[in-house]
Structures are given as structure tokens and as C-alpha cells.
Amino acid sequence: MVFAGLAFAVGEGEALFLKGPNGSGKSTLLRLMAGLLKPVAGQLAWAGEPVNEAPDDHRARLLYVGHQDAIKGALTVAENLSFWAGLSENPKPVGPALDAFAIAHLADLPARFLSAGQKRRLNLARLMAGGQVLWLLDEPSNSLDVESLSLLDGAIASHLDDGGLAVIASHEKRADDASVLNLKQFGAVSA
Description:
It is a single chain. The model has no long low-confidence stretch (mean pLDDT 88). The protein is 34% helix and 14% strand. The chain is an alpha/beta fold. The longest helix is centred in the C-terminal third of the chain and has 16 residues, at 146-161. The strands form two sheets. The protein has a five-stranded parallel beta sheet, with helices on both faces. A two-stranded antiparallel sheet has the order 2-3. Helix 3 (77-86) packs parallel to helix 5 (116-130). It has six helices and seven strands, in the order βαββαβαααβαββ.
């Protein structure tokens, strides 16, 4: 068992930061919330309804960005983002998403030529192109420089201002008004 006695809620326009040492279950909780894992006990609910009763509806409202970048090196930057946007029920234009993370000038470049930070920004641009209300972000600031961190912070703030929700696993809390859930206190993992 990874967690015991864990309960939380995230409302419209709110962010929740998952905090804890390596191995405390931050990524596991995000995967549970994304429907990639099933809880052994307990449940996840959306507006009071268990998400397992309508898993396709739940998947349609969320975007999970893992700590590894989901990029095909042979595709261009724009093609990669177009692919991900096309999986959304309400895709948004790719151009503004590339602009939001300052990579529009790389649109025609094969992704294999990107630096680690550029790959991360491309992966994060999915947030702006997908239109989902719930963002599940696993260590989104990895490989980002100070300017790129500012772009990420701006994207999250804009999403929350529009009524979106974000759950973010990170070693650093980046928003002053966000709630923090320290998973260490709910740990049931024995070494």
C-alpha cells in the first residue's frame, strides 16, 4: 500500500501541489487521478460522482503530463503538438500554444534536434493546445530555465483564472495561494 488515510479536494480555479521525498507516491497519485492505475481501496470522484463510473468522460477532461517528454524525434515540433492536440475533444490552435512556450520559431524543426529544455517546453505546450479542464503535472519544471519557468507559471495562472484545476507534483511550490498536500504524512510504504 502506498497511501493510507488520504483525502483531498481541488475546486475550480485551484491548484494542489503534491509534496514529498522521492518515492513518497507523488507520481503514483497522479497516475491514479489520470486513470492509469486503479486504487485498491477508496475512490476518486468528480463533482461527487465516482470517476470509474464514466472513465471516458474523466479521461476527456484531463491532461496528464508525465515527467518524461512524450515526443517523437522524427516529427517536427508542430507535428508533435498537432498530434497531441488532435487527441483532445476540444483542440485549440497549435500556433498560440507554441507561442505560449516560446518555441514557435522551432515549429518546422524535427524534435530530435531540440535541447532538453526545448523538449520540455514542447511537452508543456500540450497544455495550451488541448483544452482540458484538469491538468495533472508531474515535475513540470524539470529542465526549464528561469524564463521558461516564468512561462509555465503564467500558463498555470491563466488556466486557473479561467476556472481550470491543476494538480502538480513538484519539489518546489511555485504558487503562493496553492494548497500543498505532503504525501509523506500519508505514506504506508515500508522500506
